Amino acid sequence: MVDDWQAFLDSDAPLCLTVSPLEQGLILKDRPSSVTAVQESEAQTADDQAALLEIKATPPSEKQDDQLALFKTAESLEKQADQKASLAVISETQLFGERVAQRRFRKKTTQRDVDAIVRDLTELTISAPVVHEEHGVGRYQGLITLKVDDIEAEFLHLEYAKQDKLYVPVSSLYLISRFTGIDPEHAPLHRLGSKQWEKAKRKAAQKAKDIAAELLDIYARRAAKEGHQFQINQTDYEAFAQAFPFEETPDQEEAIQAVSDDMASTRHTDRLVCGDVGFGKTEVAMRAAFIAVMDSQQVAVLVPTTLLAQQHAQNFQDRFADWPVRIEQLSRFRTSKQQTAALKAIAEGKADIIIGTHKLLQNSIQFKNLGLVIIDEEHRFGVKQKERFKSLRSEVDILTLTATPIPRSLNMAL
């Protein structure tokens, strides 16, 4: 080992290895001939690059000791070093005009759900269900020290069905994921050595394929079916927009324009508006509702809770106060008499905007001319309601508002 280049040149060492790429070349002194070396990975491109730079790469010649030679393999370079030929080292930068990018081969890893990865042992609690990538669902029973080949090491103690035990080295923590789904206390444990886990994975994969096929069918029907092209009265729309008491943000303006463009086209609208609480998603929905109502179409606003339904009803009443728009609310805060009257108005087309919880999805509710469905906070609805949303997408225009979109909706939006 030497401290610098000068120390290497002054030594008798025939070969020097560096830990970083050379920026400039060098010539070994007191040798009668010259040899040029390039990296083996760049040998195949040397002639091409040299042609571009109008430099000709010359093969080695025994008769011309003073000629620079290009060695395409490390073996030929080593042979010359043994023959004590002088050595000129030309860097990549000098030879090619720029540093050539090195190819790095990285082992491909299977993508996993970030939220499911266990990063630290402190995230695990005793008796909590966990999922082993190869053995399935078991319960974490703490750490245990075992001696393997006279070496003590810590292992995760996992308990499976029939009290089967599995000890996982702490170094293999990446194989363990959190269990998500049903109540942890009722998590179905798999049995070691059985085919349960493999069957469960195949079943889940098949279900994912079925969902993908269903979504493909829904969007194929949407593409084949021409949607309602809303007619926008610009004078009325501008008057409604001017009544907004705040100045629109750039993102809000962009979202409003995108939604109105969708509604003015012949294709079905399926727009996801994603923004944090207080960023003006409701105003985007109100502008869309105004366009639909002014074109004699009914609007259904679906919310996950009764309290949110009441809040939206009040906001819509205030925003549409200067317009001949009838707004109805369906929730448990309304009496039976009020709900009966609202249902009748919906069926007759007298109710323009209907705000309610999942009750709006019941088959008993008949809309006369439903043109737009606005879904607020989709992730807070149940599985059955989300399945109903999927079928709605092939029938009417959909506008989804959320601060935290479900993965499927976000993926389809992207």
Enumerate how many helices there are, as a single number.
Answer: 12
Q: Please describe the biggest sheet, giving its number of strands, its sense, and whether it closes into a barrel.
A: 6 strands, parallel
The CATH H-level homologous superfamily of the largest domain: P-loop containing nucleotide triphosphate hydrolases
- Write down the secondary-structure element order: HEEHEHEHEEEEEHHHEHEHEHEEHEH
Q: Which descriptor suits the 3D outline?
A: extended
- Which CATH architecture of the largest domain is right? 3-Layer(aba) Sandwich
* CATH class group of the largest domain: Alpha Beta
Radius of gyration based on Cα positions:
35 Å
Model regions low in confidence, pLDDT < 50 over at least 5 residues = 32-74
The total domain count is 3
Q: Between the first and last Cα atoms, what is the distance in angstroms? A: 55 Å
User: Could you tell me the number of beta strands?
Assistant: 15
Query: Can you give the mean pLDDT?
Result: 77
The portion of residues assigned to helices is 25-40%
What structural class should be given to the helix and strand makeup? alpha/beta
* Strand proportion: 15-25%
CATH topology of the largest domain: the name is: Rossmann fold
Question: Biggest sheet: strands side by side, in what order?
Answer: 10-15-14-11-13-12
